[in-house]
Design goal:
mainly alpha
């Protein structure tokens, strides 16, 4: 009994090979998923950084507009493109501040094991 090797049928051999191939595919899929998640996190970080810079620039523009508003106005009666740009930046800054207040990190965050017993 110890010295005898039991022959494996072709069907059993094929089954074992398919199981091994499935395990390899599962491991490869896990690696690809982790790589995609890292890329997504890096993109989100860049987007947050860009949003912070844009918000700062809009606040700076609004500050410059407020400072310029205190200066005497020109006699032409028309507002310049710079003044229009600053007014738009001020409105965008106010909107951004309002939207940031709504979706902040207030409240509990869900855990990974939520719903598991």
């Amino acid at each position: 009994m110890f010295g005898k090797a039991t022959p494996i049928s072709p069907t059993e051999m094929r089954k074992r090979l398919l199981i091994a191939e499935s395990e390899l595919n599962r491991a490869q899929l896990l690696q690809e998923w982790e790589l995609m998640a890292q890329g997504t996190h890096a993109f989100a970080h860049r987007a947050k950084t860009l949003a912070a810079w844009a918000s700062s620039a809009a606040l700076l523009a609004a500050g410059v507009a407020a400072w310029r508003r205190g200066l005497p106005a020109s006699d032409s009666g028309k507002s310049s493109w710079f003044q229009k740009l600053l007014r738009g930046a001020r409105a965008a800054s106010a909107l951004w501040s309002m939207l940031r207040g709504w979706g902040g990190d207030k409240g509990p965050k869900p855990t990974d094991d939520a719903g598991r017993g």
